[in-house]
Write a structure and sequence with these properties.
InterPro entries: DUF397. The protein has one domain. The chain has 1 helix and 4 strands; from the N terminus they run ββββα. The protein has a 4-stranded antiparallel beta sheet. The longest helix has 12 residues.
Length: 70
């Protein structure tokens, strides 16, 4: 399934686990109704690939990680 989400003017936030050397981290976008766009923080220009997850799926993923299931 392909979901098109308008990311123009989107505010991206880098993971708090990211360090200054450009490590393996992600950025997520805020304010996109019903979706959580995610991209690689090393390639954070507007031409970078973006994965878009449904909000409830992203929440379930984070819960599983925090609970040690992933």
């Amino acid at each position: 399934m392909t979901t098109r989400v308008d990311l123009n003017g989107t505010f991206w936030r880098k993971s708090s686990y990211s360090n200054g050397d450009g490590g393996n981290c992600v950025e997520i976008a805020h304010g996109v109704s019903g979706h959580v766009p995610v991209r690689d923080s090393k390639h954070s220009d507007n031409s970078s690939p973006v994965l878009v997850f449904p909000t409830n799926g992203w929440g379930a993923f984070l819960t599983a990680v925090k609970n040690g299931r992933l």
